[in-house]
Amino acid sequence: MSLDKALVDRLGSLALHSNHKIIVGVDYGTTFTGASYVSSKGTELSDVILISTWPGRSRVTNTVFKTPSRIAYPTDNPRISKTRWGYQVEPGMTGYSWTKLLLDQSTPLTKYDDATLEGASQAGILRLPKGKNAIDVVSDYLAEIYQYILGIISKQITEEELRMTPLEFWFTVPAIWSDQAQDATKAAAQRAGFGASLERPRDQIFLISEPEAAAITALKKYSTNSIGGSVKVGEGILVCDCGGGTVDITTYLVNQVIPTLKFEELCTGIGGKCGSTAVDRNFYNLMLDRFGDAFDNLPMRRKGPGSEFMKQFEIIKRDFGSSDESDYFELPLNMIVQDPDPAYFDDEERMVIISSDDLRAIFDPVIGQIIRLVRLQIRDARQETGKDIIKRIVLVGGFGGSEYLHKSLRSSFESSGNITITIPDSPQAAIVQGAALRGLEGLRSTTKRCRRHYGFSCGIPFREGIDNEANSYSDHFTGEKMVGGIMRWMIAKGEKYTENYTNHVDVCQIHFESSRLKKSVTFYACDNVQAPERVDDDGVYKVGEIVVDFSNVDLSRFGSKSVDGERLYSLSYNLTVILGAQEGILRFEAVSQGQTIGTTSINFNTIKYY
Fold first, then answer.
1. What is the 3-state secondary structure (H, E, C) of 459-518?
2. What structural domains does the chain harbor?
3. Over 90: is that where the pLDDT of 27 sits?
4. Which of 94, 464, 482, 605 has the smallest number of Cβ neighbours within 10 A?
5. Taking the model in full, what pTM does it have?
6. Is residue 352 within 8 Å of 333, Cβ to Cβ?
């Protein structure tokens, strides 16, 4: 049977049946992007088709499960006539990489993030083309991915079948990402063509966290007897998703294996921006320390992602830790160095020389952060259950295939004999497979743990001897002395919630007759373990402004009074916050006097921090 015939059989004839759809998983990563698809007729993991051919002459082999998250524009490259992407971006071209990290700019760096990230843009790595922001660049790149996915699927079914068949897209996002970053990802994907449009009104787009997608694949595989050993009910499985830009760690408790797999989040997941690009940044810093301006002044096409120099480093980085490795490694770099140290640079051959000790110094700070995060998650799981419940660590993601990382984790956690480290086949593909399975089988964590506290700031009656006079005010309607800035937390960090978890808050806002009828409420979050009382306490930050539009509401339905010749209205309503929504983002609904006054939108803050 030919490969094309096999794919057609697996995808199935979708005819034009209205109940059929194609589920597409998309893993847009910091360094690489992958995609998978499956017919809704599929029943198991083996039915999920991984896209394994990507265009471009710079790929090493014909079969590759991912393509570089890289784009090059004609405006920067006079020799090309149209946008190039992925493997089409060849050494020597000016391209843009790692742009995904620029989508999450509202959250300050944490102690588990790579410290060199803040200075990466100064080093010319995290750059944007003139006149474009991060969402623009990501959208341009994803538009190419979208068209390529449609082209691949259209080879398996007729154009008419594709036109009539809904596509359900599942995008993976880091679990550690802010709400603003998740919204930015979805906005970029929609602008690129994913989801409903005039041409394809029945298409949909959803978000799923990367570790949950990986857990779906891993637990599906290990729920039956396999080489890695089968999971058992009551076991804790720690998923360590080590990608290019981020590391996400989440632990799941297996509740049921037969007849269907069921699992839940055991404790609040953790993570940091300390993926494999942190190793690259450490490598760049080593080059700057050794060669100074000679390296710093090189154009990015010679030293940046996709250059021959960095392609060679990627090979070294992947294989480092193997037992048969060399003590020294050479990387080609056309660079002029004054009086070079022969231990570091071969001037005649134009080769940079690095040692195994250099690589350990580059890797160890990043590996150390990952190990610390894993230890914290094991501790949290022990505190949650009162016992050592984690029996398996599943290593996934592009960086998850690193031999040095694997050995480091085994040495740190397998010595006790209680924990097994396993790596699925093609760890870089586990996430995108799980994304498609999520849509196909509805597999998901039955309960999740909230990553942060969420709530609103409100006013309460002033408490003498407790509240600061500077925060006091007089209620416009009652004249009562109040204190503002008190947090009303709607869900706590670590609290369990199910899909479409809802909570309600009563909101009352004063409306002056001469003011606008579009009102807003600021939504806050806090990552601290203990939620503070006040909005101005350390750790509380804005998520965004929730907009409620009263333009079409009859004001006579609300209480009012005349003050100094102007009528004041008390606009009271109930605001519902929906977490864990299938769309993967925060949703809000406002209701007043039993009637829906509209579904609200949220305007995210975009404070730049690096």
1. EEECCCCCCCHHHEEECCCCCCEEEEEEEEEEECCCCEECCCEEEEEEEEEEEECCCCCE
2. 3-208 (3.30.420.40), 450-604 (2.60.34)
3. yes
4. 464
5. 0.80
6. yes
